[in-house]
Amino acid sequence: MPNPVRPAAFVLAAALTLIGCGAQVESPGDRESGSAAAGGHYPVTVENCGEKKTYDKAPQRVVTNDVGITEIMFALGLEDHMAGYVMPDDKGDLTSVPWKDGYERTTWLSKGTINKELVLDARADLVFAGWNYGFNEGEGFTPAELRRVGIDSYLLSESCRNGQGKARGVMAPLDALYTDLRNLGRIFDVEDRAGTLIASFREEVAAAQAKAAKGSDRPRVFLYDDGRDKPFTSGAYAGPHDIITKAGGDHIMKDLEDSWTTVGWETVIDRDPEVIVINNYGDTSSGQKLRFLKSYKPLAGVSAIKNDRIVVLDYVDLVESPRNPAAISSLAAELRDLTS
Prior knowledge:
Blueprint: H1 8-17, E1 24-25, E2 44-48, E3 51-55, E4 62-65, H2 67-75, E5 82-86, H3 100-105, E6 108-110, H4 116-121, E7 126-131, E8 134-135, H5 143-148, E9 152-155, H6 173-187, H7 191-211, E10 220-224, E11 232-234, H8 239-246, E12 250-251, E13 260-262, H9 265-271, E14 275-280, H10 286-295, H11 303-306, E15 310-314, H12 315-318, H13 324-339
Parallel strand pairs: 4-5, 4-7, 5-6, 7-8, 7-9, 10-12, 10-14, 14-15
Antiparallel strand pairs: 1-3, 2-3, 11-13
């Protein structure tokens, strides 16, 4: 899903102070790497969505938007650096997640839409969000707007725009996850923790791939997010692409050079998916989505519908998040069971 979440004197003071993280955008002639100063960790420089940014110290009051982004922070053990998180309450059961303690230790700032007033009230020094994961020109909430009031931004790498209008995606989805873990590890001086996570995730993905179907045995898979007139789905740069392909599926929308986007039902029917994965979130339940797919007459001849090969994964499994590797293992098992 591309859009997962639905005081003048103070603003002036914030704009003058550039509080907290001390991030500076690098010009082409500036320092190319964040070498440690005088034996210390800082300053450090990372590249985020094509922009080099230098941090003189770790941000202390981060506001995150949406569940996957929030759990990236939790997976790195960075709760003490957070002012809180924003997300609607349709993201599944948060009491049994791997990072339950993170939710218990961090403030749920809003179940609505993130905005400038909210992050100012939270005294944020950095907002970790993404294009259509909180940042949106239509809502007037952008990194440029935050910069004007002295608040830095870190963009979710899955959401990086690629220069083709507002299309998103500049790297493979799992590479986006590893890039963000690596960058945040440097920004917050937890590089060892980030490296350990990345290594464990790579190992889990490799183990799932070793058991997954290959070549012509791979079933054709379609990701259904929502939509009746036109389905909303994943292109090559959103999480489901890597989740599907590394689990042993052939992602039928792999030629779409975008992250989350809309296609026509005609394209889905023509590519005849053998398995459909439903994204479970939002006001429309996975059960309602399933009933629609089974009752929509143009889909009656599609292999996945005829053979009742439907898989449900939660939203946080499918957007960029530290749950992606486990989702690959889970889907790989489902695909083996459905196609054996």
